[in-house]
Amino acid sequence: MSVIEATPTPYRPKRTGEPLLRLEGVKKHFPITRGKQIGAVHAVDGVDLEVHPGETLGLVGETGCGKSTLARVAMRLFEPSDGKIWFNGQDITRVKGDELRALRRDMQMVFQDPYASLNPRKTVGSIIGAPLRLHQTVPKSKIKPEVQELMRLVGLNPEHYNRYPHEFSGGQRQRIGVARAIALKPKLIVCDEPVSALDVSIQAQILNLLSDLQSELNLTYLFIAHDLSVVKHVSDRVAVMYLGKIAEMAEKETLYDSPKHPYTGALLSAVPIADPNIAKKKKQIILEGDVPSPIDPPSGCRFHPRCYRAQERCSVEEPELRVMDSGQLAACHFPLETRIIDAPTVTDPGSSTRSTPSPSSCWSCRRSS
Ligand code: SF4
Questions:
Q1: pTM (2 d.p.)
Q2: What pLDDT score was predicted for residue 16?
Q3: Percentage of residues in the chain with pLDDT exceeding 90?
Q4: 333: Cβ below 6 Å to ligand 1?
Q5: I need a surface site. Which of 34, 44, 89, 112 has the fewest CB within 10 A?
Q6: Does residue 319 line the site of ligand 1, with CB under 6 A?
Q7: Is the CB–ligand 1 distance for residue 314 below 6 Å?
Q8: Which of 241, 248, 324, 334 to mutate to test the pocket of ligand 1 (most atoms within 8 A of CB)?
Q9: Is 332 touching ligand 1 by the criterion CB < 6 Å?
Q10: 299 C-alpha vs ligand 1 centroid, how far in Å?
């Protein structure tokens, strides 16, 4: 778990009306060929998801479960193999050409690696201004002041307009990536592990920046991460993915307090706790065996070869994602009935129980990363 200090997530309005992004039965299979197709990687295998305007949906799961592929399919960077995608009430599953180009203005992405996602041969001004030039939303003469305003907005010095990415720290580079993502004033930003490559001391600054921008620009986030404390801090709702499918989805308080899917329970039990007195009361669930291959996923429930609650039915009948008594959605025949974790499982970076240094005592809060 990251040791970070971030300000509490601000109040956000309740979800109302039509979702901004809706996925229905979305699949993405990558063919495996040896002269002809001999199989397929089932990276995403039937996902239903809604993201409402102004909310942050956190997407968690272990490496290789299909989170990033799902995000890229939702962004139409990958063609879906099956299913439907709606954005802002419009079916965008098969849009192409100018229509897809126009869609790009409303959907942007912040990438995981702030080093690899910036062209080292371009100046920061050129990188942040690229979407403005490509989409011609601003006259050429106004691009520089617009980019400098964006730099100011994300906490960068506008005088560094002509500097190159290697002259910035990791946190500053991620700020450049964020500035580029908001340049076209999008409605949705997909954040693909935006803080995983950063030092823990810098993570909170980027999270706070994303949170401030969300309030200021009325942004909607699909936030992908594997750090459960980060996801808890930034998200309104959380979806847990396992082997290409959604295992559980709920409001963050419900999911963290009372997980229903055994996989969610295992994930939460594995989060380290800084306080040794609380940590020793916690029961950790160790999952046996390796993650099954997405090339040949197991029959029935995909989690059954590793599940500590599996019964005979689990290996033959695939569980549907259904509403549990506590209101969350979970795909399990034998959901957890009570809390299996005795201690608080995740320390929220914004929790008031953490000791937050005063602004005068913490030098890192007073400077941009
Ligand atoms: Fe475990 Fe069975 Fe539930 Fe799957 S359906 S998570 S194997 S208890």
A1: 0.84
A2: 60
A3: 67
A4: yes
A5: 34
A6: yes
A7: yes
A8: 334
A9: yes
A10: 12
Mean of all residue pLDDT scores within the chain: 86
Using one digit for the tens of pLDDT, what is the confidence trace for 109-135?
Answer: 999 888 888 999 999 999 999 999 999
Decide if 215 is inside a domain: yes
As for how many domains the chain has, the answer is 2
Domain assignment present for residue 354? The answer is no
Last residue of a domain, one of 178, 202, 235: 235
- Looking at the structure, tell me whether residues 224 and 266 fall in a common domain: no
> Ligand 1: does its nearest atom lie under 6 Å from the Cβ of 131?
no
Range of the domain at 318: 259-330
27 & 122 share domain: yes
CB under 8 A, 24+ apart: contacts of 283-291: 283/340, 283/341, 283/342, 285/340, 291/62, 291/64, 291/65, 291/243
Q: Is residue 249 part of a domain?
A: no
Which residue's CA lies nearest to atom 7 of ligand 1?
Answer: 304
CA distances, 69 to each of 104, 191, 221, 224, 348 (Å):
17, 13, 16, 11, 27
Cα of 291 vs centre of ligand 1, distance in Å, is 15
Q: What is the pLDDT of residues 313-330, one digit of tens each?
A: 999 999 999 998 888 899
pLDDT of residue 215: 93
Q: How far apart are CA 369 and CA 82, in angstroms?
A: 42
What is the model's pLDDT at position 339? 53
CA 334 to ligand 1 centroid distance, Å? 6
User: What is the atom index within ligand 1 of the atom nearest the CA of 263?
Assistant: 6
Statement to judge: residues 144 and 99 lie in one domain: yes
Nearest atom in ligand 1 to 247's CA = 6
pLDDT at 338: 57
pLDDT, residue 275, reads: 82
* 125 and 86 inside one domain: yes
Question: Which of 204, 227, 307 has the alpha carbon at shortest distance from 67?
Answer: 227
Burial class (CB in 10 A: 0-12, 13-18, 19+), 85: buried
284 and 188 housed in the same domain: no
